Amino acid sequence: MAKKLPKTDVVIIGVGWAGGIIASELTKQGLSVVGLERGKERVTEDYYMAHDELRYALRYELMQDLSKETITFRGNEKIRALPMRQYGSFLLGEGVGGAGVHWNGQTYRFLPYDFEIRSMTEERYGKDKIPPGMMIQDWGITYDKLEPYFDKFEKMAGISGEVNPLAGKRSNEYPTPPMLHTPSMKMFVEAAKKLNLHPYTVPSANLSESYTNPDGISRAACQYCGYCERFGCEYGAKADPVVTVIPVAKKTGKFEIRTHSYVRRILHSGGKATGVMYTDMTTGEEIEQPADIVVSTGYVFNNTRLMLLSKIGKPYDPATGKGVIGKNYAYQVIKGNAVGFFDDQKFNLYAGAGSLGVCVDDYNGDNFDHSDLKFIHGGNIAHTFTGQRPIQNNPVPEDSPRWGKEFKANSLKYANSVLTIGSQGSSMPFRHHYLDLDPTYKDAFGDPLIRITFDFEEQDRELARYLSDRCGDIMKEMGTDRILKMKELGPYEITTYQSTHNTGGVIMGASPDTSAVNNYMQMWDMENLFVIGASAFPHNSGYNPTGTVGALAYRAAEGIVQYSKKGGLLV
Amino acid sequence: MSEQDQHSQQNENREATKTKESQRMSRRKFLTRSGYAVGGVVLGGLLGYLIPKEETKPATPPAPQQQQKNYNEALMFFTQEQYAITQAAVERIFPADDNGPGAKDLGVAFFIDHQLAGDWGFNARDYMQPPFYVGEKTQGYQGRINRREIFYIGLRELQNYSQKKYKKDFPALSPEEQDAVLTAFQNDEVNLTTISASGFFNLLRSSTLEGVYSDPLYGGNKNMQGWAMRDYPGNQMTYTNIIEKDYTVVPPQSLRDHL
Ligand SMILES: Cc1cc2nc3c(=O)[nH]c(=O)nc-3n(C[C@H](O)[C@H](O)[C@H](O)COP(=O)(O)OP(=O)(O)OC[C@H]3O[C@@H](n4cnc5c(N)ncnc54)[C@H](O)[C@@H]3O)c2cc1C
Ligand code: SF4
C-alpha cells in the first residue's frame, strides 16, 4: 500500500517552464501547490564551472538519465520499435527548471495562420491542397485571443527583440531591446534586404540588458559567453524557470517542490482525478499525493505516457483515426540549411549567445504563395551566432576527408570562417505518426516506455529542399566562397541532434472528438486534470515552441484558478 | 602582411593586454561593470561565493618555472599495450603538422583512458536493457556491449588485422600502413563478429576530437594547445566587449583559471 499524504489544492507533475508558470500563477492566487519533480534541485551557482563542452554538451550532464527511462522509435508500423539507447535527435530535460535550464531562449510566437491552419489553407488554396492523411486541424483558439498571454510570457522572461514585420499584431513591444549584432549578422541583414526580405533580430530570452520583470524579479544582462544551449547560465541572464517563476512561487509560502519524485500514475475515480502516485527515488517508497486539481507538465512524452498508463482519455488508433491520446505527434524539419565557407574572412565564432541571431519569416507559415508548391506552411530562416565550441564544430568542405592530415588542416583553416544559415521547418501531423505504449521495453519501474512512430513525408522533403535553397540564396548574397547545402532530407533518424521541439500527443481543439484538451488545457474527459506543454500542439510551426508553450501555460493558469472557484468544463 | 592581417594582429595584441587586465580585475569589479548589480540590488548567491575566493588568490596560479611531472598522466583502464595502440591510432586521426601538435602530444590517449575508466565507459547513463535486436540505421546503436568492451575488442582487432596484413603490431607500422588499417576499419572492410568495425572507428574518431578540444582538466588538450591551434579562447567570463567586433584573438583560459 502506498503511503498517503495530506491533500493539497493542486499537484504539478514536472517543474519545468510549464510547471513553473502554473506554480507561480496559482500560488499568487492563494492556492496551495505541490510540485513533484523527478530530478534534482538546481541553482545558478551550479554553473560556475559550467563552461565545459565535454561535460554538458557531449555527456548531457543536465539531461534525463536514459538508463532509467527513454523512448522507443520506429519509422513506420511495419518495423519493430527499438529504444533510443543514447542521445541524438532531441535532449530531454530533468531536474528543477526542466529543459528550460539548458535551452537557447529563442522565443517566438506562432503565427495567426498556425491557429487556424485548416480553415485558412482551405480558404486560400481549396480542400485539395491538403494531401490525404495530413491531419491538420484548427487549434480551437485564435492568435488574437492568445495574444495577451504571449505578452505576459514575454514580460515575465524579459524577451529582447524587435517587432517582426510579418507576424501577428502585438499589443506591446518587447520588454527589452534586441541583442547586439555581430558583423556576420549585419551581413545577413544587408543580404536579406537586397533580396527584398524582412530581416529582424531573433527574439531572445538571453537578456540584452538588465531587467526587472512585473513579478519584481531582477536579472542581469547576457555576456555572450558562448556556452548557452545545453548549459545553465551562470549569470541568470538566460530566462529559466529557476531564476524567474519558481522563486515567485516559493516566496508566497504556498509552493512546495519535492525533488527526486517520479510520478508514475494519475489517480482517478468516477471521472475525476484524485491525485497522483509517485516513487520517492531516494527511498524507493511509493507515495500517494491527493489533490483537488492535477496538472501534468512533464513534457510531450511523459504527458502522453501518463495519460496512457493511467488510462485517461481514449487512446488514438491509427487504423480507424479515432481516439485522441497519442494523436498528431509532430516534430521539426530542421535540416534545410546552407553553410558558407569564407576563404579570407574570420569571425568571432567562439562567442555568442543561445538566441543571438537574425532571421526572416518571408518563407514561414502562409507568408508566401504555395499555389505552385508541393507543401504547405514553411519555416523561419535564421543566421544564429550561438558560440561554435570546438569539439562539436569542425566543418570542412564536402570534398575534404573526415580525419587525418588534410582534415586537420581544413578544420583549423575554417574553424573561424564558416557561417551557417539554418531553417526551422514546420512539421505537419499525419495519420500514421503517433505515440503509444511500447509493447516490449520498460522503464526502471517496469512501466512501458512511450513509442514514437514517425518519419519524414513528401511534404517534409519538399519543404526542406525549398528552405535549403532559400538559405542558399541569402548565403550567396552574403558573399561566401563556397556553399554547402542540404541536398536530400533523407529518412528521420534518431541519431543526430535536430531539435527538442517534439509536439502533440495530448492535443488541444474545439471538440472532444478530435482533441484531448480544450483551449484552457483542460481534459475534456476529466475536468480537474490539466495537461500543459507542446503536447497540446495539433501541429508544429516553423519556430521554436516555448513562446507558445508559455502563452498556453498562462492561459491554463487563468482557467485553473477559475475552475478552482466554480468547477465544471471551462469551454 | 596584408592590411587586414595587420589590423587583426593589432587587435590581437590589444586584446591580449586587455584580457590580462581582466584576469586581474576582481570579480566584484567585473560584476559591477557588466551591470550585474541591477538597481543596486546584488543578484543571486553569486557574489557571496565568488568574491572572497577572488580576493584571497589570483585567478591564474603562477606558472611553475620548471616542467613538473604530471601525475595525471598514468593509466586507469588501458594496459600499456592498449595505450600504445590508441596513441598510434589517434595520432593518425589528428596528426602533428605545421599547425601544431597532434593527438599524441596533446595527451589524447590519456584522455580516452580516463574517460573509459568512468561512467561513460560503462554507458552508465544509456539505456542498456534487453532485449537486443539488430535495428535500422535510423534507430541508432543497439548493441549490448559497452564502450570499454568496444575499445577492448577494437584495439585487439586493430592488432590482429595489422599482424595478418603486415606481420607487425599496429604501433610498429609505417604511418601509411596505419592509415590503410584505419581506412579498412572505417569502411567495414574488416569483418568482426562482436562489434562493427566502422562503429569502433567512429568512436575512436569522435573521442580523438574530444581529447584534442575538451578542457585540459580531462587529460587531453595539453596546455590548451588544441585550442591555441584554432584561436579558441577556452572559457571566458564575457565577450560583450568583442561581440560586435571583427575577428579578435583572445588568449585562452581553462576551467582551472576560474577555480
Ligand atoms: C538543447 C535545447 C535547446 C532548446 N532551445 C530552445 C529555444 O531556443 N527556443 C524554444 O522555444 N525552445 C527551446 N527548447 C525547447 C524547450 O526547452 C522546451 O520547449 C521547454 O523546456 C518545454 O517546457 P516544459 O515545461 O513543457 O517541459 P520541460 O522543460 O521538459 O520540463 C518537464 C519537467 O517535468 C519533469 N518530469 C517529466 N516527467 C515526470 C514525471 N513522471 N514525474 C516527475 N517529473 C517529471 C522533467 O524532469 C522536467 O523537469 C530547447 C530544448 C533543448 C533541449
Ligand atoms: S550566452 Fe548569455 S544567457 Fe547564455 S549562458 Fe552565456 S551569459 Fe547566459
Automatic annotation (TrEMBL), chain A:
Residues 435-553 form the Glucose-methanol-choline oxidoreductase C-terminal domain. Coiled coil: none annotated. It comes from the Bacteria. It comes from Paenibacillus ihbetae. This is GMC family oxidoreductase. GO terms for molecular function: oxidoreductase activity, acting on CH-OH group of donors. Pfam families: GMC_oxred_C (PF05199). Belongs to the GMC oxidoreductase family. PANTHER family: LONG-CHAIN-ALCOHOL OXIDASE. The keyword Transmembrane helix does not apply. InterPro entries: FAD/NAD-bd_sf, GMC_OxRtase_C. Keywords: FAD, Flavoprotein, Oxidoreductase.
TrEMBL record, chain B:
InterPro entries: Gluconate_2DH_su3, TAT_signal, TAT_signal_bac_arc. The keyword Transmembrane helix applies. Residues 1-27 are annotated as: Disordered. Keywords: Membrane, Transmembrane, Transmembrane helix. Residues 1-24 have a biased composition (Basic and acidic residues). The chain crosses the membrane at residues 30-51. This is Dehydrogenase. It comes from Paenibacillus ihbetae.
